[in-house]
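(Fold this chain)
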Amino acid sequence: MNRRPIGAQKTPRGVFVATTIVVFFSALSVADSVGFVPYYIDGSTPSYSEEVALSDLPQLGEDAFAQSSARTQTAFPVRIAISSIDVDLPVQNPQTTDIAALDKLLVKGPARYSPSAKLGERGNVLIFAHSSHLPVVHNRMYQAFNAIPEAKRGDTVVLTGSDGVEYLYVVTAIVKADINDGTTINLSQDGSSRLTLVTCDTLTAKSARYVLTADFVGTN
């Protein structure tokens, strides 16, 4: 599998490794714009070897997640803000994974993929939205994630939860991918808490995608 990094950014190891639960990309088209939703979940069993990485060992000591999320309750993301690229939008939380239903919902803005993590729990929060570079777009939600490729490593992403808490993430990478290259997104609860944003790359091809990854760092 080949991925093309943007600038000098490097894809964190393991972001696109198929594990217990993986989500494959599927192309969608809504009116004037091409969007993105994953189209199925493939439950697979990870393989094991006689070697183990440090990252696979139990957490040693306290981390930001443990300090700021001692409570067991979870929340849905209801708003996403990335001040560095002027993104400030509501987030939908549909319970369906049906492509036709999600396709219709995307005209109202970003949506969280329901099998992905909620705020306040381990795992990967997966949110996707449209991008469009057509000269005339009547619905601005077709351009919801237009600025995602302009984000930089170290930028802060703020997800406001249904509990009123702001969950903070720091961008680790923005990469290009294609729905035909076998790229996967790890949704397993592997001890980390992270965020993945996905949108289309309409200037390259209908099958092209931008994938932003970010790590949880704390709450406000």
Remarks:
- The chain has two helices and twelve strands.
